[in-house]
Design brief:
Blueprint (H helix, E strand, L loop, with lengths): L8 E8 L4 E5 L4 E6 L4 E5 L2 E5 L3 E5 L5 E4 L6 E8 L12 E4 L2 H14 L6 H17 L2 E2 L12 H7 L9 H5 L6 H12 L3 H18 L4 H8 L4 H12 L3 H15 L1
Antiparallel strand pairs: 1-8, 2-7, 3-6, 3-8, 4-5, 4-7, 6-9, 9-10
Helix pairs in contact: 1-2, 7-8
Length: 260
């Protein structure tokens, strides 16, 4: 791309405290939002979007959205604004995009360059191009944790998201319902576009991030989720967030210190 990308892509960071609200608004630029240290939650055109640190929320231009900071600690949000002339290269509807640790590192480097009085223009342009390329080719999902009000599926999802039942296997929970396992699994694919096992894993990730934000010990969280060893939980968490629980907690503490 021959244009000066710095006029087409803007990156800003925000630190929101608990219960701080970003009121409903829509812009002429598209927004890609993600959190460096926890869950990001938005209400977009009456739908709830949620993403842990390895996912972000793409909001096309002229799309009304708002957010509320729910975590007890300061939440570090990143907003990447995309000029309307580039938005046709990204999804035309709100999407949850999967991002890699390299993406976060690229953003961190661009934010570092932003603080410098003099920039290496070629290097800055290269990083912006790398960033935009990653956005274009990032796997897109409708929602990280899709929901359904289907009368047969809804009570099953409620059971699967009950922390009191995390130690039970998926099969043990499904036997509580008068439906065949095959029918339930087919229903989940139709309604959620996601397997029930993956949906439940994502519920566990959301739960564990909330627990980490509240200062619960990693060993305790592992026990709550049904893991026999903390190391198994740490591997599970890192595969799905790109960070270990300790790294996520450290990033929360760092943001809290910097915002004081």
């Amino acid at each position: 791309m021959s244009q000066n990308l710095s006029t087409f892509i803007e990156i800003d960071e925000f630190h929101y405290q608990k219960d701080e609200i970003v009121t409903a608004h829509a812009g002429i630029w598209g927004d890609f939002n993600f959190s460096l240290n926890g869950l990001l939650e938005y209400l977009i055109e009456e739908k709830r979007f949620l993403s842990p640190p390895n996912y972000g929320i793409w909001i096309p231009p002229q799309t009304t959205h708002c957010s509320t900071a729910l975590a007890d600690h300061s939440t570090h949000y990143i907003c990447i604004r995309i000029h309307p002339t580039l938005c046709h290269l990204l999804p035309n509807s709100c999407s949850t995009l999967s991002i890699l640790p390299f993406f976060r590192q690229t953003v961190s480097e661009l934010l570092r360059l932003k603080q410098q009085p003099q920039q290496n223009t070629d290097y800055h342009q290269h990083l912006l191009q790398v960033l935009f390329d990653q956005l274009q080719f990032a796997p897109a999902h409708q929602q990280y944790l899709p929901q359904s009000d289907h009368p047969q599926l809804l009570p099953i999802l409620q059971a699967l998201s009950d922390p009191e039942k995390f130690t039970k296997s998926l099969q043990q929970i499904l036997t509580e319902f008068p439906l065949s396992e095959r029918h339930i699994l087919r229903l989940s694919q139709q309604q959620l576009q996601l397997s029930l096992s993956e949906w439940r894993n994502r519920v566990k990730i959301v739960f564990s991030i909330h627990q980490l934000q509240q200062g619960v010990a990693i060993k305790r969280i592992a026990y709550q989720l049904g893991f026999q060893h903390s190391s198994s939980f740490i591997d599970f968490f890192k595969r799905r967030t790109g960070q270990t629980p300790a790294q996520l907690r450290e990033s929360q503490q760092t943001v809290s210190l910097n915002s004081n």
